[in-house]
Amino acid sequence: MTSPSITELIPHRGPMLLIDAITERSVSEIVCRRRFRGDEFFFDGHYPDFPIVPGVILCECAAQAAALLIAGSASVSPPASQVPVLTRMNNVRLKRMIRPGEEISISVRLNETVSGAWFLSATVRVDGKLAASLDLACASAAKPGGDASAIERASGPS
Question: What pTM was computed for the model?
């Protein structure tokens, strides 16, 4: 599955769309890929003489893959009036720098669904070697004109 299908599932668009393709998918797991070209906006200021992909961008790649898993699965996806959003990241481990020209593989596994919240684990690999890992949670948020109460319920009291 390539970019046009991806943009049907999640609202991200350039320059923040960070998934190039979905390479594998099941009800509870997804594998996506992204090749960093070197002309992405974050390379201009993130170590300009030695560009590396910021760790937060790797986490965003994992979050977008998680949103694709959730949105693309009829058994767990939110209603059409809502979209999955990141609510938590835990146990983030950055193990390897990613440089321009490298391609990452992002694997996300759905661990549990509870009261409209999804709990997932993700790994980012380069050439089969672990570059990052994290646990994350998502909830559904209303699209403009939709029901805002779902994210409030999943986030808990303020």
Answer: 0.85
At residue 41, φ and ψ (nearest 5 deg) are -55, -35
Residue count of the chain, please give it.
Answer: 158
Catalytic residue among 1, 28, 40, 46: 46
Coil/strand/helix, residue 150: helix
12 catalytic? Reply is no
Identify each DSSP E strand in the chain by its residue range.
21-25, 29-35, 82-94, 103-114, 117-126, 129-142
pLDDT profile of the chain (158 residues), mean per 10: 72 91 95 96 91 97 94 66 87 97 98 92 98 95 62 46
Note the pLDDT tens digit of each residue in 99-143. 999 999 999 999 999 988 999 999 999 999 999 999 999 988 887
Residue partners of 13: CB distance under 8 A and separation at least 6: 7
Instruction: Give the residues across from 95 on adjacent strands.
Output: none
Q: Quick one: which of 150, 149, 124, 144 has its CA closest to 136?
A: 124
As beta bridge partners, residue 113 has 118
